[in-house]
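#random but structural
TW: two for the price of one
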Amino acid sequence: MQKPLLNGLALTAIAATSLMLWALPSWADATPLSGMDMVELAASHERSGELEAAEALYLQACDLGEGFGCSGLTILHEQRGDLEVFEAISREGCEAGSGLSCVFLGDIAMSRGDPMALAYFDTACDLGHGGGCSLRGDKHEIYAEFDQAEARYAEACDLDNINGCLGLAYVLSSIGRYEEAASPYRQACDLGSAEGCFFVGTSFFRQEDVQQALVYLERACGMGFDKGCNLARILLSSN
């Protein structure tokens, strides 16, 4: 018999919300849902504002060992301010393989000054969560562990994490590897970072490629980055 993932504390708190199995669709008895099916259905309920139905499905997915179910359940409890339950379910989710839940645990540990935070971020990164990789890179950078910071930021950037790409570019620039920094800056820009677009634009400006510089500076400006607007105006007025 499979051991339920949720501990007594989490189950007691969740039971208090009077969640019912009626949240499942009527055809669920005939067609058993996988944990991931439950997560997708729960997300649909959540988008529609049907939070009790969403919570019931996330709970069942989490209890089946689906980490994304634990993550969804965790977020709902955080939004309600149920911090004790939030931590309990984050722990269950992290153990079930949810990188996001491990990030939540790391954030909680950081707020307490608990050095275990770094281990949680490492676990999140190893599980493929870009935010965990980026946060771990941040801590390496703070302690001037630039090789380790570069490695974690590169993993985050490969996972399309904007902060990871920016962090990688900053580290490469700080040690004089400016040409290599251009690629993560461009990726950050393509992912929607105004700051990334600005730095790509300034790179083209230093290369005296005004047309390409304007393309990226105007993208940064369009995202509300004032420095991009100001430099674009200067370039336009001087040409």
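TW: number two ↓
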Amino acid sequence: MGYLSESEVRLDHSNSADSIFVNKVRSRPDQGGGPIFIRENAVNTPVGHNVIPNFLLHRVLSVRGYDKDYLMQEANITAGDELNVIIKRLFKSAELIYLHIHNVKTGYFLCFVYRV
């Protein structure tokens, strides 16, 4: 199984107005140019190896697999509680180096999963 990055910005479910807007610069084919929304008072939350954070478990997710040239080679839609199965299946392919996980409804990027 791959690993989620060792820390992430925790985005609590909130209607708080204290968020900021940051534009993302596209420099590779796997990077979109859309906005990044982060709460002003967000904190880094450590994520252990082989652990799927709870915030992913109750969403419908798009899981996209990328190769060494940053090109998407696989794409799947799954329920969050099935994410572990999809990650293991995708990483059986030696061609895939890392995964992107997006929220299906909004298309927002949620996190990376890396093979180590």
